[in-house]
Amino acid sequence: MPSRSxxxxxxxxxxxxxxxxxxxxxxxxxLLDWLLRPGEARVLAFVNAHAMNMVAESDPFYQALMSADVxxxxxxxxxxxxxxxxxxxxxxxxxTDLIPKVLARANGLPLALFGTREPWLSxxxxxxxxxxxxxxACVVANGFLQLEDYIHIAAQHRxxxxxxxxxxxxxxxxxxxxxxxxxxxxxxxxxxxxxxFLGGKVPRAPRWMRNSGLEWAFxxxxxxxRLWNRYVHGNPLFMKRALAVAVRSLRHRxxxxx
Length: 258
Hints:
This protein has 258 residues and is α/β, with parallel strands linked by helices. The chain is built from 13 helices and 6 strands. The radius of gyration is 18 Å and the shape is globular. The protein starts with 6 loop residues before the first helix and ends in an 8-residue tail after the last helix.
């Protein structure tokens, strides 16, 4: 067994192996179809460099991600980590682009947005109703309620898609509790800042920055106080950790995993 100081490396390695790979636009379409196919409650989670740093420091957060039904990579940092671990990264599936596609495909089904606060929450609902899913009812709740409140609202309205925009790790904790509590088919998405994006609180970076993997720099410039630690301290820490995991991979020191 690895020493306690290296437990986080095993968590990174296991999470990288568990991520779903989508290699083509057709593969993305198939993923969207599967996510919305009737069945039991499912959780979709996104993993970026910030999430990986949290995994290194929190086993409960790692366990929550590993129990999600689908985990996909978000960002160039995790792509680099996967390549360093001899894993094919597939195409980038960031939530800000993928979640609107899910909502549009779910048009006609009942939806829920849980996250952020007013006025952005109501503005996000308006965008969903006018541009993405005009034939869907959409219930909303701010991101600062108690867990029991979200369970009650979901049980009452029975949405087929619930988007959580509460930030990590609260949204992952809420997602697992909702999946356990709901007895109807439902896709629960851990969406990060997606409700803020939809509501106009946070603007998107120019497309050239998104295509170049620089959206984080745009967001840092917009919100330096809130995001300074995540990006200025977090990105170099992520790279240091990624190199440590890569060195261990090259030495073939991983225990066998299922």
